């Protein structure tokens, strides 16, 4: 099939690469000329595990192309995917739909033949109706349908998740449109549940899923605090909980709070939609507030270890919001680092993939190191904020030699407490007294 994808971010680009790998002819469209120039030159504009190899393979084969021209990407396409950003409004926190609306209005002019226009971005309930109205207004004679096609790709694992989805949800108001999307995902037929629902149900499924997962993360973080006070071990508690099939073991790892481009944005948007519709989303509202407090509390844990040390230096390992990605949007690590800056301590940070993105946010408020041991030189405490595997394999004896004060605050529970203490560290972790 011929596919046009509007947007080359963390959703659009992995999806484009994946669909090309399945044998489709894909054209990715982006207004940002510098980004398209880099992609045409064979340079990835974001990091995702496993993406580089498939990107190179499919650009070389000609199945994956890039353009700034909406006409080139949309004309003659069987399916057009809208995968542009829906950032939160700075005041209301509702999803900002200007990029979706602009894409729908612009693409309308170039529709030829029957085309399915699919919203891949996470959008408020009713967006499909708006997109349909905008296209019909611009091009009254166009033969098209609008469907909701929510993405469930985890950042850091997007390539894996594209080829191993746990479900494919299609929000279509007629069978014709649903069948086109089923054809697109035919390679997964019989292997993966393909759920065809009405468009508004599909738009709700994405928000309901992310809000529930965010609640699960915040719940286990609160239980971790409880375990620290009572002498229980959060990992033993989580294992016992996860064996209950009604609960499941996923998202029961304690940490500094959730972040990234999805959970904070989607919980806020869901809460806003609840208020707009007169529905009390009390659980979601509590999770949003609690997650903000969580990050502040984590910063305070770190600064408490150096409060009596003059001219303290704090080493930070990890700036991305999670491992496997270079994305720093709404990263708990960035939030915590800002809290550390406010304490007056000197900060030196290292992240294996997210240094460039972090520098765009933090600028020269902190210093940056070329590796994790350089970041720790002369430090009075090491804070581990992102769960990169490199950190788990750290040489603790070497680390102790370069630090001024042997203290570790491990907010991802990456290290063995026994190994850290044997190496001479005062070791603080999450969910264990």
CATH topology of the largest domain: Rossmann fold
Largest sheet: 6 strands, parallel
What share of the residues lie within helices?
A: 40-55%
> If you compute it from the alpha carbons, what radius of gyration comes out, rounded to the nearest whole angstrom?
23 Å
Order of strands across the main sheet? 3-2-1-4-5-6
Mean pLDDT, all residues: 96
Unreliable stretches (pLDDT < 50, length at least 5) are none
Class per helix and strand makeup: alpha/beta
Name the CATH homologous superfamily of the largest domain. NAD(P)-binding Rossmann-like Domain
What is the tally of beta strands?
14
Name the CATH architecture of the largest domain.
Answer: 3-Layer(aba) Sandwich
**β-strand amount:** 5-15%
Total domain count: 2
**CATH hierarchy class name of the largest domain:** Alpha Beta
Number of helices: 18
Short descriptors:
single chain, 433 residues, alpha/beta, Rossmann fold, 6-stranded parallel beta sheet, 18 helices
Provide a quick synopsis of the model.
The protein has 433 residues and is α/β, with parallel strands linked by helices. It has 18 helices and 14 strands. The chain folds into two domains: 2-197, Rossmann fold (3-Layer(aba) Sandwich), CATH 3.40.50.720; 292-429, Rossmann fold.
What is the secondary structure topology, with strand pairs?
Blueprint: E1 2-6, H1 12-21, E2 25-29, H2 33-40, H3 51-61, E3 64-67, H4 70-74, E4 79-82, H5 98-108, E5 115-119, H6 127-138, E6 144-148, H7 158-163, E7 168-171, H8 175-184, E8 194-197, H9 199-230, H10 234-242, H11 263-276, H12 282-304, E9 313-317, H13 332-342, E10 346-350, H14 355-362, E11 367-368, H15 372-376, E12 381-384, H16 389-392, H17 396-402, E13 407-410, H18 417-422, E14 426-429
Parallel strand pairs: 1-2, 1-4, 2-3, 4-5, 5-6, 7-8, 9-10, 9-12, 10-11, 12-13, 13-14
